[in-house]
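Predict the assembly for these two chains.
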Amino acid sequence: MSETNNNPDTGRPPSDWGAPGDAYWAALDDGHLDFQVCDACGNHWLPPRSECPKCWSPDWHWQRASGRAEVVSWVVYHTAFDARFRDRLPYNVAVVQLEEGPRMVTNLIGVEPDARDLIGRKVMLSIERDLGRSLPRFRLED
Amino acid sequence: MRGKVVIAGIGHTAFGKLPGRSTISLNMEACRKAVADAGVEKEAIDALFVKVPTSKVEMMYGQKLAEAMGLRPRIGGVWDQGGASNISMISFAAMAIEAGQCEVAIVTLADNPRTGTRQAYEKPWGDDSIFGWSSVVASYAMIAQRYFHDTGLPRDVFADIAIAIRKHGANNPNAQLRLPLTKDMYDAAAWVVDPLRRDDCCLVSDGAAAVVIMSADRAKALGVKAPVPILGFGQGHTSCDVPLREDMTETMAGVSARTAFSMAGLSPSDIDVAQIYDCFTITVAMTLEAYGFFRKGELAEFGANGGFEIGGRLPLNTSGGLLSETGMPGLQLVLEGVRQMRGTSVNQVPNARHCVISNQGGIMHTHSTLILGQ
């Protein structure tokens, strides 16, 4: 990430998801995870986008997530395709489903090195400051 | 239109590392060989379809290639569905011929990520890259992890696929990776992204392949030596990104196959040999299930005791596929299907009459199916 592209106020680069993405990251800086809800059909989703993927309506609002979620799948990287993660190998990336329905890519916290199957495990949101961002990560619950 | 259009000629370059060659040059070599194999003159070509190269994306690539080849196509251009492009372009060419839009079409693919850039395969995924989410292999690994969970199959279940395909590649003088693979080697290989190991992942290769397509009548009139009839084709595009797929182990591959089988008037039990897009072993497993060769969870049983080898239940990727022959995205599988129907494969399946070929792209975002016969 080049410094020159960063917004001088927030230090964040512009979101690839456009304006709704900028608002999403700003909410995380404020300490909460929001997802979008369609005003026309009630569908809800992440990642942020400007139209409802179900009914194509441009009218939607933000709703705050409870933070409770479940693991859909996960992987462990043993190769650093992205140089920023070279010193973090091995590291995990997961897909979780919020209890409200939307899904997101994240990292899991508290994974044992010999963990075999985490799918279906309950997890809880933990916003961590890392890599210059407020990252919505999820901690494994017992 | 079952059988009314044929593949009249095939051609390809060497596979592997081809430094100093542009994709235009690679495409032209494959086309030159395919046209020579068909035994037709360049003047007969009136359609040109080309897949977008991953190593360098340029505007108007289809016309750039036509210019280099001195062609003014009646129909054609560049197409992008990732690896599904090849069979999709063959089906568009067949429909265009049937509709009187053109008479003799070339479908071609060239790429050089091995000596050029692998960025298409290793790139970070937008805002989510902040979690370390990058590369094509990790998305397939995400699907594979869910597959193991849902099916309860052991984590070494893909070994039968990798070993059989490598065995076929080892016997193919054109293959890039010819070292036979044992179960011990498979188990000992490093994780790339857990749960996928090195030998679950295809090669990264430079190279090109091309086919010449025309009507069966035209092939007869021209005296084409070994035309192979196209019996059926289909497409299906999952499109949705992997994390958002309601069921990560379901795609549109089944829809694509049903369209193709229905057009051909055939079912999976009629198929003697298959060339299944093997960018990763998980892709082969899910494609064969979607096509109806076995039910979800039955992979271990189906692949046991050489089930995917010559003489087995379903000889698979008989030139070595993406895992062994070349990692080039897909058209080489069609070439091997043509060889099987002509009876000229180095790993010939005796009396093979029907071959199914799958192509797919992205992270199972796109899919196309081709059925060849005799």
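The first strand of chain B starts at residue 5 and ends at 12. The mean pLDDT of chain B is 97.
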